[in-house]
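**Polypeptide and fold**
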Amino acid sequence: MQLSREALLRAYRQMKVIREFEERLHVEIMTGEIAGFTHLYSGQEAVAVGVCEHLDNADKIISTHRGHGHCLAKGCDVNGMMKEIWGSREGLCKGKGGSMHIADIDQGMLGANGIVGAGAPIAVGAALSAKIDGQGKVAITFSGDGACNQGTTFEAMNLAVVTQAPCVFVFENNHYSEHTGVDYAVGTAQDIASRAEAFGMKVWRADGTDFFAVHETMREVLAHVRAGNGPAAVEFDTERFFGHFEGDPQRYRGEGELDRIRETRDCLKKFRASVTGAGLLGDAELDAVDAEVLGQIEAAVEAARAAERPTAEDVLADVYIAY
């Protein structure tokens, strides 16, 4: 499926926003201004954008502890996210979610989650709600290779099949569960998708560093699920450019591994090479997007630094919901 120039520019911009958002946080965290753990998504941008470009606000996603990319790809506001990570009461969750628990219900982003594998059951619930509504909407849960070992994920996949819920299980296999290699920790290390297949759902596999492979694969997956065929799963083979968390020394990495994957498996480099090589977009157009995004991220950081901080009275606000 050939994308228009506008769609190509939008996809590139979305990936670039995620990359620069994360690269800037990598720098700012070293200043000590940002509290708590932060897990960066750099390297996996093609998955988030390739998936979410097919969704609207009524489609729901559930994210992980490495959730900034999913949030941005789903349409969450850059300034609101940066303020949230800085702990401001002007943030998307009024400073109470922080890096690992950003949510924006209006955008169909039901939340990031600090517990590995915890998003899958929530997504099945959202998918069942969509099934009852009957409007052809779906729920997607993003998980890493580590989550494929969790009982919550297994139970969620089984329940989705039993109830024929319109749920998509997206596994981003970046080869490391925290600090443990997938070859050591996962019995089906070379084929995580087969675990979902064993529950009775259709599965797909694709290169998660190639935006076009992700986008086309998700077009097929979502057509299958929206047609009422029950849940599906997809495994994207991708790369994580930073450690499990900021400050991770990454001694488990092989010598030269990071340099190699940044050079050969960078989804933004691949995208640029593909579109310029095919004459679909020019370097000048993409350079203009780069400059615009850098300005946007700089403005977001400055706004977050200056944003209002929580007060003592905010501690008990929004603890309980009123029906």
Observations:
- Residues 5-316 form a domain with the Rossmann fold fold (CATH 3.40.50.970).
- The longest strand covers residues 167-173.
